[in-house]
Amino acid sequence: MGTGPRADRGPRPSRPVAPDSRQLARQRRRAHPPGTPAHVRIGVEGDAAVLRVRDRGPGLRDADLGKVFERFHGAGTGSGLGLAIVAAIAQAHGGSVAVCNPEGGGAEFTVRIPVVPAIHGRATQK
């Protein structure tokens, strides 16, 4: 198997989280050399669809942990807009985004989006 992102799929949320997942994947690719493994998990926890992306890179500096979602705060090689876009997408859907340096190394980004109940295959607003 390759060393690219792997997906563990839990129950399917009724609202797609694809825009966040694509943006996080782009950010991960820009921040790490080719071949750096990443693990992607998508599922439902309580009343939220949850997307987690964990890499095995060096992690983030403590000084950057609280700022990586701010516009123009580039902790890596980009413009500092990518993670701000992820945060804006999550917030526009009533959700949140967080980052930590988990034990064992790397960084883990978590996006939570409230689940909208589906009725007969159609999403409904609360």
UniProtKB/TrEMBL annotation:
Gene3D superfamilies: Histidine kinase-like ATPase, C-terminal domain. Residues 40-117 form the Histidine kinase domain. The keyword Transcription does not apply. Residues 1-11 have a biased composition (Basic and acidic residues). Keywords: Kinase, Transferase, Two-component regulatory system. It catalyses: ATP + protein L-histidine = ADP + protein N-phospho-L-histidine. SMART domains: HATPase_c (SM00387). InterPro entries: HATPase_C_sf, HATPase_dom, His_kinase_dom, Sensor_HK_Regulatory, Sig_transdc_His_kin-like_C. GO terms for molecular function: kinase activity. It is an enzyme of class 2 (transferase). Its EC number is 2.7.13.3. Pfam families: HATPase_c (PF02518). It comes from the Bacteria. Residues 1-40 are annotated as: Disordered. This is histidine kinase.
